[in-house]
Amino acid sequence: MKRTRYVCAAASVVLIVGGPVTAAAAVSADAARTVTAAPALRADMTAQDAAKAALKHYPGVIESLDKDGAVWHVDVISKDGKGHAELEVSASGAVTEQNRDTGENAGENKALVSAKVTADGAMKAALAAHPGQVTTVEWDDDDGTASWHVEVKGKDGKTWDAQVDPTTGKVTTSGSDSDSDDDNDT
Asked: Dihedral through CA 25, CA 27, CA 28, CA 32, nearest 10?
């Protein structure tokens, strides 16, 4: 309260002595010093954090999760396999629904919904094989054999591709995007 009086008194003195332009500058400078900074965005939003936020918004099973800049794109299939939501999770953890469909063919999603290893389990298995940050998780059953495709950016900056078995959680194949022979030893 005293501070407000001092600011008003100072503004009045400046207005009388220097005119309205100087007064506005004085008040603006003081206001700029008293404004608190906006909370920082989470630059460390992990794939696991994004998955958790998405599933809280739309309960189900993660079908895919992909980082694009500071935003995570997450596709979730409902637990009954009939629903599908396309979500975006911001660096702050805010979830935005891009699209929702309730007319999915549950049979097409049966293997995903009933998989013993979820996207979270696939991420954990891939990270155990290659520590780093998950950048992509994707359910893949296009060739008739279901698996999780997980990309991990290692601490060395290289991206590792891993295939994770949806029944056992075993990392069945893995490799780096590097052309070096010694980077592919798993």
From this structure: 140
Q: Kindly list the strands in the beta sheet with 84-89, ordered across the sheet, starting from the edge strand earlier in the chain.
A: 95-101, 84-89, 71-77, 61-68, 132-140, 147-154, 159-164, 171-176
Highest mean pLDDT among 27-41, 90-104, 161-175: 90-104
- Which residues sit opposite 161 in a β-bridge? 151, 175
Collapsing DSSP states into helix, strand and coil, what is residue 171?
Answer: strand
Q: Cα angle vertex 164, ends 166, 43, to 5°?
A: 110
pTM to 2 decimal places: 0.70
User: Sign of torsion, CA 155 156 157 159?
Assistant: negative
Phi, psi of 141 (to 5 degrees): -135, 25
Neighbouring CB atoms inside 10 A of 67's CB total 19
* pLDDT tens digit sequence for 80-136: 999 999 999 999 999 999 999 998 889 899 999 999 999 999 999 999 999 999 999
- Pick from 62, 102, 97: which is nearest to 82 by CA? 102
